[in-house]
Design brief:
This protein has 10 helices and 10 strands. By secondary structure, the protein is α/β, with parallel strands linked by helices. The protein has a single domain, classed as TIM Barrel (Alpha-Beta Barrel). Helix 8 (about 210-215) packs across helix 9.
């Protein structure tokens, strides 16, 4: 009788466990995508991602939609997970050109190159949250997501004595509705991008001429540009790109400015 009771209890426990829907089963993963648009026109995000802005997400400054407007704005953003000599070169260029941007960083960069992180802050850049470990967070619980964000905040505070800017970029642009809702409710603004190009693979870098052409062909007013500062190509062409943009009448805005609008 005792054996039967124990078996019955085990069976009931198994039913309870398997009847509970997992976080992974409940959450749908989305991948950020914003196609390049000819004619220097602001691109539109994939129609399936129309909910992003309503959940506190940003990828473009809609206030500057006129390609020939009297005011032209670009937002420079970088995803930085490690240093290979090029992040410092990028910072050198930006200091020389008196331009600031936003760096979305990982735990690895803070732990291994704290001097670079401190330099970013000292030179007026925003240091923002790309999570601790660059994992796909779309099927993780809210608690797991916040652990990644708060853990990075703590490391940054230990490194600099400062508070990390409360802007979040999902690793690889992969996210769920629940992720966006969670970070919004916890004081973060999610920042995607309206332009990126294949610059992240150090073994498959485009030529300087080709990379610069792709960037300049796709410039649009209100653009949030995503570059990877580990790219040797980006380090080599960034100064030319910045100077050409200045010559075209563009200024470089901050994420505080971008996110000062109310999401549509």
């Amino acid at each position: 009788m005792k054996r039967f009771t124990v078996l019955a209890l085990c069976f009931l426990c198994m039913l309870t466990v398997f009847s509970q829907p997992s976080v992974a089963a409940e959450r749908q993963s989305y991948h950020w995508y914003c196609a390049h648009q000819k004619g220097h026109i602001q691109p539109k995000a994939d129609a399936r991602l129309s909910f992003v802005e309503a959940l506190g997400g940003y990828y473009l400054d809609h206030r500057y939609s006129d390609a020939n407007g009297s005011e032209k704005v670009i937002y420079l953003t970088f995803d930085a997970g490690y240093e290979n000599g090029n992040v410092a070169k990028i910072l050198d260029v930006m200091r020389e050109e008196e331009v600031t941007g936003a760096f979305f960083v990982l735990k690895n960069l803070i732990l291994k190159n704290p001097e670079l992180i401190a330099r970013m802050a000292q030179e007026g850049h925003l240091v923002c949250n790309h999570t601790m470990n660059h994992r796909d967070m779309s099927r993780r619980s809210d608690a797991e997501l916040l652990e990644e964000l708060h853990g990075l905040e703590s490391l940054y505070r230990e490194c600099t004595g400062l508070e990390m800017a409360r802007f979040y970029r999902p690793p690889e642009g992969t996210f769920s509705r629940e992720n966006l809702q969670c970070v919004m409710e916890n004081g973060y603004k999610t920042v995607f991008w309206s332009f990126a190009y294949p610059d992240w693979d150090n073994e498959k870098q485009p030529s300087l001429e080709r990379a610069k052409q792709i960037i300049m062909d796709n410039i649009h007013n209100g653009e949030v540009m995503l570059l990877h500062p580990t790219s040797a190509t980006n380090a080599a062409i960034l100064q030319d790109v910045i100077r050409e943009l200045k010559g075209m009448g563009y200024r470089f805005g901050t994420l505080e400015e971008l996110t000062s609008r109310v999401p549509s």
